[in-house]
Specification:
alpha/beta; TIM Barrel; four-stranded parallel beta sheet; 9 helices; 31% helix
Length: 351
């Protein structure tokens, strides 16, 4: 069912904290994974990132044999190992995990080594890593903390500076590798407004140094389909990012935009699905509207569904976690993949 969608991109999330708990050993890129959906069966163990790359290699071969373009890989790194993370400082929420903290300056070498290891493994598996995002949702304290020096909405932003160091290190490692992989900046959570603990898209872009803006002409953002009485805040993350980049000017002006996480579930994305009548159709319709709008925007280069199998922590998948139910949004993506002239019709009840 996944292959039938003919995906042009496959997004590979790399949890550094889980792969390298000790600085004395390199990241365990073949550490076994249980294959469950956060504990939900069915499960099928595989050798971690190495197994994922082997599966992607198989998918690329199958695509070529059918005459379809082989999917490209977009790597997205997250999670600081405890030994690589800064101690608590700034405006940090109680209970913040070390994996969410910014890196110690001395850990950037290990970060570059992780990227080198990923590129080397991918080369052995025959899978070019076309794109690499330095860090996931760096404007969200759940992934990069602290966001501000003080717990005030106008507190000095710290996250943009921490991200800048990651972006510079990633760019340098990609250049040194000669692999041809390109940097994908951003991976921003779709927040149009900031808070004491979080940076809005515009605030984050405003805080980046000029040289970082010139590391790539491709930026990514996460934008999910809300509907019903869901709050309208952050309703257009794509437009917000375009505006923020154009306002900075220079290298940032006119940058291409990737929506690397999209999908529909509950009226407020990320909340548990209620299973109410009409919920699937309403979510599908909201996503269909987003896809139609993005298809008309010449700056939007790609849109990626998160995820195929339901992630119980953020339920917007195309199949449920148990793989027993196919959501209506699968039909929507299938219609887009097949070039249907009216893909939104997929959101109507099946005859």
């Amino acid at each position: 069912m996944l292959a039938a969608l003919h995906p042009r991109y496959l997004r590979l999330l790399v949890d550094w904290a889980a792969l390298q708990p000790s600085p004395s050993r390199p990241a365990a890129l073949n550490a076994p994974v249980d294959g469950c959906a956060r504990g939900v069966p069915p499960c099928g163990s595989y050798p971690g990132v190495e197994g994922e790359l082997a599966a992607i290699a198989s998918a690329r071969r199958a695509a070529r044999s059918s005459g379809a373009p082989p999917p490209e890989v977009v790597v997205d790194i997250l999670g600081a190992p405890a030994w690589a993370a800064l101690p608590p400082h700034g405006c940090e929420a109680a209970g913040t995990a070390s994996a969410a903290r910014a890196l110690l300056p001395g850990a950037l070498g290990a970060y570059r080594a992780l990227i080198a290891g990923l590129l080397s493994l991918a080369g052995r598996e025959g899978v070019p890593l076309a794109w690499l995002a330095p860090w996931n949702e760096p404007n969200d304290p759940r992934f990069l903390s602290p966001q501000r020096a003080s717990c005030e909405a106008a507190g000095a932003p710290l996250a943009a500076g921490a991200y800048a160091e990651l972006a510079r290190a990633a760019s340098a490692q990609l250049r040194a590798s000669g692999s041809g992989a390109q940097l994908l900046l951003g991976e921003l959570g779709g927040y149009d407004k900031g808070s004491p603990h979080r940076l809005g898209i515009g605030q984050f872009v405003d805080g980046l140094p000029e040289d970082v803006l010139c590391l790539s002409h491709d930026w990514s953002v996460h934008a999910y389909a809300a509907y019903g009485r869901a709050p309208a805040a952050g309703a257009d993350p794509v437009g917000e990012l375009e505006h923020a980049l154009d306002a900075r000017g220079g290298c940032a002006a006119g940058a291409r935009i990737w929506v690397t996480e999209a999908g529909a579930g509950a009226p407020r994305p990320g909340r548990p699905r209620r299973g109410a009548p009409g919920e699937e159709a309403a979510g599908c319709g909201a996503l269909a509207g987003q896809l139609q709008a993005w298809s008309r925007d010449p700056r939007v280069a790609a849109v990626m569904q998160y995820s195929f199998r339901e992630d119980p922590a953020y339920p917007v998948g195309l199949l449920d976690a148990g793989l027993g139910h196919v959501y209506m949004t699968y039909r929507l993506w299938s219609a887009w993949a097949s070039g249907s002239p009216e893909p939104a019709r997929a959101c109507l009840p099946a005859p």
